[in-house]
Amino acid sequence: MKKLFFAALILSSTFAEARSFKAVVRSNLNRADEAMVELKDLTSDKSFDGKYFKIVIGKSDEAVKFDAEEGVLMRAATVYHHLTTARNYFVQKLKSDYVSDTPKMVIRIEHKNQFSELGHFANDNLEPQFNNALTIPAGKGLASRGVKPWGTEIWFRPKKKVHISELNTNGLANQEFKVLLGSFRNQIHMQSLQRFLAQTVQAFATDRGQGLEAFTMESLVRTVGSSLIMEFGYQFIDPITKATSRKWYWLDTALVPEIIYHEYAHAALSDHLVLSHSTAIIEGMADFFAGQIAGSPKLAKHIKKHNTFNGKNAKRKQEYMIQFEMGEYANTDFVFSLLWEVKNILGEEKGEKFMFELRKRLTTNSTIRGQLLEGIIQTCDAICEEPFNDKIKILKALNLRGI
Amino acid sequence: MRWLLICLSLLSMNLLAQEEGTSLRNMREGTSFYSKRMDLYIKNRAAKRLTISEAQSLFKEALKKQDSKSLCAYSLNQDALQLLRERAIDVNFKGFLYLVRDTNEIDDVSLGILLRAHEVKTSSLYDKNEEHIISPDNSEANLAILKLIASFDKRFAKTACFDEAYRSFYQEVLKADKKIKSYTLEGLLHKARNEKLISDHLFVSLEQARINELQNPTLTLTSYMQKVRTLRIQYPLRDEKEQSNFVTVKIKKLKMSRRQRLFESYSDLQIIMMGNIIKTLRADLEATKVEILVYNGQEVRRRLELEPMERFRFAIKSLRKERARLSLNTFFNGRSPDYMDLMVASYEIGIIPASELEAVGSLEEIWNPKKSFWDKAGVWIKTLSSVATIVIPPPYGFIPALAIVVIEATAGKKKDPNTNDPSVLF
């Protein structure tokens, strides 16, 4: 009887429960919808504490209770649900031993503190963080200061409305439009000059010296007018754009499935891409797997709507610039769309495995033009069915991209 | 006993070699170049008169009658036609040949030669009135040519194939009159027939040859087989079952396939040299490391390792340089072979397998990008818009200006993005 009691006790503690909660999910049209989802592998019947993830608020160590306020409940459920999806993808589809052996992760929502490599959480006095998410590496802690060791964690910041003027945006799309408008303006000015010269020649040729009479007020206004209107439009495009565009930005990262996948991908790839600092390649790789888990190349497009980093678009064929290698200019869109294109060349199934294998040949300090491309070629040699053909296809595509 | 075995094996090898010599079997080509709707229609009609296996055995029988050392398309066709007649099979001869091609008993190159021979022999003569034929004068040169015509059978056609005989004959004619016109030769042929110097049959044959300009060098079965034999001796096939559709693709503005053009235009030695260029390209593309060494005397001052994309572009540029160098070679005499010819040559000598042909062939797009309809149209729209900016009055003048800007913004981007990039070597 005693044995039976202990067996029941052990079973009840390890038994993974499933409960339903309201969470944000993507609809078939890729819109954010609220729906009831079943959370699997929960080990607690009172809080978001599961076999693989524990969702906490801020610096707390206690899991979010099921009776928390609605907003927190929604964020915790969304994060838990999508993290489970992401984990299943890496364990079941990519057969990642590293992920399946990873101990339970602590996931922090509504967490404002900056990350400290020594103290885990930076001092509360330091500038609080909003509208983003990050994955932090495990730390040994600092026993002398009472800082316990911690594992790999994912932090989701609270949302905060930020005025556009506070954002350092250098929107590529705006710049491109301005360049286009500049060409149009030059063309209109040139057109006016040509017309003016043509009229001058015509007037002198027909009236033998009395040509100036041919320049009526109307023709002069017509010729100069278009240039003036164009110049006016060109000079005032910036204030007009500012006045007509959106003024406030915010991002609730714990409610965006693709961001959750992206952050989990960082953790899943950290066996080779160590979480020391952010680079174009690391972000691009995480974007790629987030796109794969989401099953949509639209990931970058949707992030673009909220993110302070403009110019995200997976379909855009950006050319390579040497500045992309530098942290400040590192363009993750470029790596993401590059990897996506390589996947399309190799095919959906093979491409996915290819990228997972590729991580073994990359490090946190890899460059796009150097180790990333070398890694792609070596990975193809190792796992492509027709290495020579596939390599040529990839190299041709990369050449077209201007790398 | 041992010697007996060796002798027997040598004898059997010799027999095999002879057997190989008379074989025109398709060893390299995939889907036939002759697969257009009309060709298929002719073939299907022929298939109603005789089966594929019948066509194959008939052709084999005709082939056996030929001299293995000097195969002649004209006599092969004649013998095949004779066999068809003997068996009372009334079939379009072209259709018969297409059926034979289906059995892989012949390849497209041989088929092309046989079809051309058939075309020559069946081309109808213009029913010209004798009055309309310009009668040649009795100059010394014309009299000499008349003698040559009269001696055609004995002097030229005795041992050689008809096309080769006509070519030799024409060489002699040119010696007599190097500026001879086609109509002069026509007049002389008529004169020879009227004066009974040649039979009506020979007159028809020579006229057919003249009309089809048989004096121009074309590929013959003998020379084709000779080329293939030389290539196979130096480069034995690694995979005898390997076939490619890449080599049977039609060449733009020409009525022949890529492989037909290769054998038509290049000698066996040229083919080997061309194939070796692709061998170098393949090795360059597969290189895992490329370095540039800067020397000062014997000392290496600097070592530059190329990045992966630089290696790729280095391989492409190196290929283009090798191509240019090839044209300076004595054997090419200034002629620069097309990239596709290099590809087919490399396949022919087994350097590039069929499965890789498409991929390597597609590299041409890098230096010779395909122009889309809009790229071509863009040039015209831009030209017209430039004129329209002056002609069209305000306020509609902005339309052509906008068109120019849009074209420049879209079409201009497709240029090589690395042209002015200082961060790359290649």
Task: Report a brief summary of the structure.
The complex is a heterodimer of chains A (403) and B (426). Chain A has 403 residues and is an alpha/beta fold. Chain A has helices at 2-14, 70-93, 97-101, 172-207, 217-235, 237-244, 257-268, 280-294, 299-304, 332-346, 348-358, 368-383, 387-401; strands spanning 17-26, 32-42, 53-57, 105-109, 115-116, 120-121, 133-136, 153-156, 162-163, 248-249.
Compute the CA-based radius of gyration of chain B: 29 Å
Count of DSSP H/I helices of chain B:
20
Q: Structural class of the secondary elements of chain A?
A: alpha/beta
| Global mean pLDDT of chain B | 87
Percent helix among the residues of chain A?
A: 40-55%
For the largest beta sheet of chain A, what order do the strands appear in spatially?
3-4-8-7
* Spans where pLDDT lies below 50 across 5 or more residues of chain B: 1-21
The residue fraction in helices of chain B comes out at: 55-70%
What proportion strand of chain A? 5-15%
N-to-C terminal Cα separation of chain A, in Å? Answer: 72 Å
Quaternary organisation: heterodimer
Number of helical segments with 4 or more residues of chain A:
13
| Largest pleated sheet of chain B | 2 strands, antiparallel
The largest β sheet of chain A comes out as: 4 strands, mixed
Radius of gyration of chain A (CA) equals 28 Å
Overall spatial form of chain B = globular
